[in-house]
Automatic annotation (TrEMBL):
HAMAP family: Pantothen_kinase_3 (MF_01274). The keyword Oxidoreductase does not apply. It comes from Ruminococcus flavefaciens. Its EC number is 2.7.1.33. The keyword Nucleotide-binding applies. Its cofactor is K(+); NH4(+). Homodimer. This is Type III pantothenate kinase. GO terms for molecular function: ATP binding; metal ion binding; pantothenate kinase activity.
Length: 256
């Protein structure tokens, strides 16, 4: 099996892909900037065992990362466990993606990986939404060119900033309240956080389609998308395996 890892600012996603390109394991842990390679190795072994897999089941590994300080630590952990050199999605690695932004080197590896997977699986033109520490939207046109996108403040970052800057607003769990119109402070916060993000996605999709002059397939991934997407008025496909699928595709392209 192939181990696919995506390191984000808040979470690290681990996935396993079998020889049929099926995602057979998907787990998410918190990103720990202070953890050692041995600590990450223990976590990875535990994740495999929890899902009834063994270390010997892993043949190779690929990784994308937006956290350079953690990248090498996790690479070392994987090498210790499996004895493999990790392929890292980034400069010098073939993606097959035609990137038309001003400086292609500035494109986040996670956005590139998401786009590779989405183009492979869904009709173009595409709007790809990744809701993590930041919320990113990527646009792929009808000729499968990566045109650019948007970066929004992530839902958790915005909520933390709001409660940190106010004396009487408490931190809340991200749960859908019973009504849009809240009748107490907690529900008002939940409603405001969740529905503002849903409305933002609806509105941005409208504006992107207006600029492109055609309707788009919208696909969402990331830890918070499961909460927000059902509240959107626009049809958005949920695919939390998008990054893992994209990493597997890139791995196959570069191992041929």
């Amino acid at each position: 099996m192939l181990l696919a890892v995506d390191i984000g600012n808040t979470n690290i996603v681990f996935g396993c892909v079998n020889d049929k390109d099926e995602v057979v394991l998907f787990e998410r842990i918190s990103t720990n900037h202070n953890a050692t390679s041995a600590e990450y190795a223990v976590l990875i072994r535990t994740i495999l065992e929890m899902n009834s897999f063994n270390v010997s089941d892993i043949d190779d590994a690929i990784m994308s990362s937006v956290v350079p300080s953690v990248t090498n630590t996790v690479k070392e952990a994987i090498h210790k466990l499996f004895g493999v050199d990790v392929m890292v999605a980034g400069p010098g690695v073939k993606t097959g993606l035609n990137i038309l932004i001003d400086n292609p080197a500035q494109l986040g590896s996670d956005q590139a990986v998401d786009a590779v997977a989405a183009i492979n699986e869904y009709p173009v033109p595409l709007i790809i939404i990744d809701m993590g520490t930041a919320t990113t939207l990527s646009v792929v046109d009808s000729k499968k060119n990566y045109r650019g996108g948007l970066i929004l403040t992530g839902m958790k970052v915005a909520a933390d900033a709001l409660t940190a800057r106010t004396a009487q607003l408490p931190k809340v769990n991200f749960e859908v309240p019973p009504h849009v119109i809240g009748t107490n402070t907690i529900d008002c916060l939940k409603s405001g956080i969740l529905y503002s993000n849903a409305s933002a996605l609806d509105g941005i999709i409208d504006r992107i389609e207006e600029e492109l002059g055609e309707k788009c397939t919208a696909v969402a991934t990331g830890g918070l998308s499961e909460l927000v997407v059902p509240l959107c008025k626009r049809k958005i496909i949920l695919d939390n395996n998008l990054l893992i699928k994209g990493l597997a595709i890139i791995y196959r392209k570069n191992k041929k």
